[in-house]
Amino acid sequence: MNRNLRLVWNGFIPENPIFRLALSLCPAVAVTTCVKNGLLLGLAVLFVQVFSSCTVTTFKSFIHPRIRIPAYVVVIALWVTVIDMILPVISPDVYKQVALFVKLIVVFAIIISRLELFASKEPFVPSFFDGLGMGIGFTFGLCLTGAIREFFGAGQLFGYDILGFKPLLIMILPAGGFFVIGFIMATFNWLEYKFTGKIPTSGGGH
Amino acid sequence: MKEIFKITISLTAVCLVAAIILGVVYAKTEHARKENEERIEQQTIRDLLGFKEGSGTKAPADLKVYAVYRYVLTDSKGRNSLGYLLPVKEGGYVLAEIDLDGKPGKTYKIEGDAAKLADRSARDAAVKAALPGDIRAVYAQTLFVANLGDKRLGYVIPGVTQGFKTFIKLMVSLDPSFTVTGIAITESEEDPGLGAEIEQNYFKNQFAGKTLDVLKELKVIKEPLPSDYLAALDPAVAAKRGLTKEQVKEIKEKHLKDDIYALTGATISSRAVTTGVKDTVRKFVYRIGILDDAIKKENLHVAF
């Protein structure tokens, strides 16, 4: 498989930010009460991740290694703020729904961890695909969690009534987020054990 | 020692570049963002008055919405009074001073038209220029008075209330007899899936039709929303169940004196909105009474 494609796939399943790397779990628990929220936040993270990865990999020779963390934070904050300013102009309706989440992205662990582990060492093209893969993986994780929670907590999917009743209200309460993410992580580990025969170590190696 | 200079300069450069980019983006988007916000506000007001976009009832040409700005005036001795910026029939605006006991004071002529005064900083400057130097004016609130031709259609009042985490901004529309005709949540940061449900029709439409007397005694009850009431409150559900307009009206009438049914898992947000609506309306009714008296006493030719 082409290396770039492998990088995207890597972020999607083998190093999925939420279920394998266990990064950025707070937003994953906080906003995944329905699929739509998960999708919107996931897309916002996807953009910030790709833009930040590209910026850092382009200017990595200018950034002094001892101040790389503050410099990365400035880069992430820059892109988050730019999106926060441009989005209400392009599409006020979408902005109204994601405004809450966009500002949170500055402090997401997944983004700075990818800048530190990948974009600061690799050239432009792989960094772009790594950012893309991580963003897609994050979006996938949020959507999956959101779908399970919305289905069992509210009996809906994407806001459409499916069951017509609420089987397990606890699922859309904060505690439900921990349950769902825990169960999905366990499933991921079980699958890995089934296919490779190895007991999974803590994901990502950090 | 040399390294520390390098680090400092490097980090400063990074921040400077980021600041410049942000500044440029801000300058480019600021105008469009403000315009969008204003457009959304105007749309919300028209929605509340019953002229929803796409619902078939277009806003008639003689619908006029007048903005009335309330200022708090403080003179050099620290005495407070209220200043209402009112549109005048002949054009232009006046600032009418009313003291805290409801006695009208001086009126000042304000330069500028409605479009100019809609902008906060331009308005503050115009008010400051018209007042004598020793009086300080602080902007407090905007009220909207809607007329259909010469007839009073209603009022739209913005309000703010303490929500679950932070403030909830809302708008309440009243008819001339101060019965609530609708509410809109303009800004809130309640939890998605729980408190954020305050924006749903089945919650906020519960306020519509509550008269001033009912509103004064209004409470939040932790009971499940009756199924027929839910259908009447949410047009989408009503359409699904095939309810006619008459049936919807009948069900709404039956539940008119009901308290507000709290949202599942979001009692605090439900209470916050209810208190917010009650406070907003109570204060407004008190203020508009005083304002109307003052307008009559002073014989001001206001536009509405």
UniProtKB/TrEMBL annotation, chain A:
Keywords recorded for this protein, A-Z: Membrane, Translocase, Transmembrane, Transmembrane helix, Transport
One Pfam family of this chain: Rnf-Nqr
Transmembrane regions: 40-59, 71-91, 97-115, 127-148, 168-191
InterPro entries to which the protein is assigned, alphabetical: NqrDE/RnfAE
Major localisation: membrane
Subcellular location: Endomembrane system
Record's bilayer topology term: Multi-pass membrane protein
A GO cellular component entry from the record: endomembrane system
Name the UniProt record assigns to this protein: Electron transport complex subunit RsxE
Source organism (scientific name): Desulfomonile tiedjei
From TrEMBL, chain B:
GO biological process, alphabetically ordered: electron transport chain
SMART domains to which the protein is assigned, alphabetical: FMN_bind
A Pfam family of this chain: FMN_bind
Domain FMN-binding span(s) in chain numbering: 163-284
Annotated GO CC locations: plasma membrane
Keyword Electron transport (UniProt): yes
Keywords: Electron transport, Flavoprotein, FMN, Phosphoprotein, Transport
InterPro entries: FMN-bd (IPR007329), Ion_transpt_RnfG/RsxG (IPR010209)
GO molecular function terms listed in the Swiss-Prot or TrEMBL record: electron transfer activity; FMN binding
Name of this chain's protein: FMN-binding protein
Organism in which the protein naturally occurs: Desulfomonile tiedjei
